[in-house]
Write a sequence for this structure.
């Protein structure tokens, strides 16, 4: 997109409250006037952060603009958060970019989103930040020109050794689990897998996410309290963080605030505090 269109004012006075300050927050506060980034323990950064990027349309509506304006602003936030996550040492960042259900939106909005996706894939940014690029989802449904752009970026960044940025495109958990089941059934039919050997670990090898660990932290912006068919299998023991901030307003300090909240939690994975202590 034109450079002039890629900068948006995110400190508008009518914007929603920051992360953790609204109805869904945990009231995480700064300590001794330190920023949230300064509070972070860089040795305890979550390896895998997944984000449901919600609120673009409502952000645009607040400003009397079309939904496409919100999506453009949200695309800018993707670049900001991806670069910040890479700097902080996050190993995997997975973004819910376009769901299978989103195909049911008005045709003009879907077309605009596909064009925005094409324009937003900046290989130069990935190379500069040593970011490896991957995609999960039913990508065969995407327009050919988008598929070509995605595949080229995947190939060109494959040797990068920093953070892996994963876009969930034309994705839903139910689709993914159904596809994994079909592949596993075929493997059993062909004698590659025995039925008695199938467990959760074997099944997970057939998921689209088999190249990365499960998310440690799932963030959802925009004030909604649901997972929206996103990484349902993988988030069995993920820490969930909901905030009222719309995605275009979610910047570096908001992201660090979510990480601070994560670092203050005790992850038990079904065990007691005494067992993990």
């Amino acid at each position: 997109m034109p450079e002039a269109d890629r900068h948006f004012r995110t400190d508008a006075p009518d914007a929603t409250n920051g992360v953790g300050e609204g109805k869904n927050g945990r009231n995480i506060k700064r300590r001794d006037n330190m920023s949230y980034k300064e509070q972070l323990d860089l040795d305890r950064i979550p390896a895998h952060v997944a984000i449901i990027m919600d609120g673009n349309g409502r952000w645009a509506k607040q400003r009397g603009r079309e939904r496409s304006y919100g999506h453009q602003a949200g695309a800018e936030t993707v670049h900001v958060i991806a670069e910040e996550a890479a700097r902080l040492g996050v190993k995997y960042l997975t973004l819910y970019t376009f769901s299978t259900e989103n195909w049911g939106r008005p045709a003009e909005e879907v077309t605009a989103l596909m064009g925005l996706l094409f324009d937003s894939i900046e290989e130069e940014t990935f190379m500069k930040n040593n970011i490896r690029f991957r995609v999960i989802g039913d990508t065969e449904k995407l327009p050919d020109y988008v598929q070509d752009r995605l595949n080229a970026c995947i190939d060109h960044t494959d040797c990068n050794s920093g953070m892996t940025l994963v876009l969930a495109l034309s994705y839903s958990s139910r689709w993914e689990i159904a596809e994994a089941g079909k592949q596993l059934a075929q493997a059993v039919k062909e004698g590659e897998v025995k039925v008695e050997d199938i467990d959760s670990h074997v099944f997970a090898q057939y998921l689209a996410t088999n190249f990365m660990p499960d998310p440690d932290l799932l963030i959802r912006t925009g004030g909604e309290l649901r997972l929206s068919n996103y990484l349902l299998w993988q988030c069995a023991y993920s820490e969930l963080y909901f905030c009222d901030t719309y995605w275009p307003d979610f910047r570096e300090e908001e992201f660090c605030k979510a990480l601070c909240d994560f670092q203050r939690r005790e992850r038990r994975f079904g065990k007691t505090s005494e067992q993990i202590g």
